[in-house]
Amino acid sequence: MLLAVCLILPSFAAGEVVAHQRTGGGSHSGIAIPEISHGEMSIMAEHRAGIIDLAARATDTKEPFRRVLNYAQIQYAYCLWGKMPGGVTDEASPFNECSHAYLAATKAVLLTMRDMPREAAAAGEIVSAIDAGMVERGLALITCAFSGETFNTADVVRPAWADIPTHPASMASLTVLAALCGLGVLAFRRFLGRPGF
Length: 197
Hints:
Layout lengths: L1 H13 L17 E2 L4 H20 L5 H16 L17 H18 L6 H18 L13 E2 L15 H25 L5
Antiparallel strand pairs: 1-2
């Protein structure tokens, strides 16, 4: 995971540093994805791996389902695989809007699977677990600036790179990550410079 982040982080950051820039320019030629509330996000994130695993095993799928699943996975990568502190829970995080995007797509995938014959039972169990968790934790009414935002498969949401210096948790995480990447490069160069290699 660290190697993957070290390889792709510079290309992500090299793009324009406009807050919450979307690559599709706001195009709505793709598939619409309904919003997800801030309160739903944390529990949806806990179930994300199981939802994606179930969706990946689904065999009787249609193109819209596959496109939304693909979008969920692309957005997850853009959000650095959900590893940024506060990306899901902190509205001020530069990664919060893109987290809304991948979790909204994950929710759409889950709800679609409730109508798929082979996946319906397992999807229903996940939905029930999510509903119970929402009630137990009182998450239903928690909203944020992005809670009413809908998404589209033609419109990738990037993190707000320009806001990272003003978000201490993100800045600290990326600084440590950059240092680890730098140390890895130095160690690799030293290894290559060994006599007899």
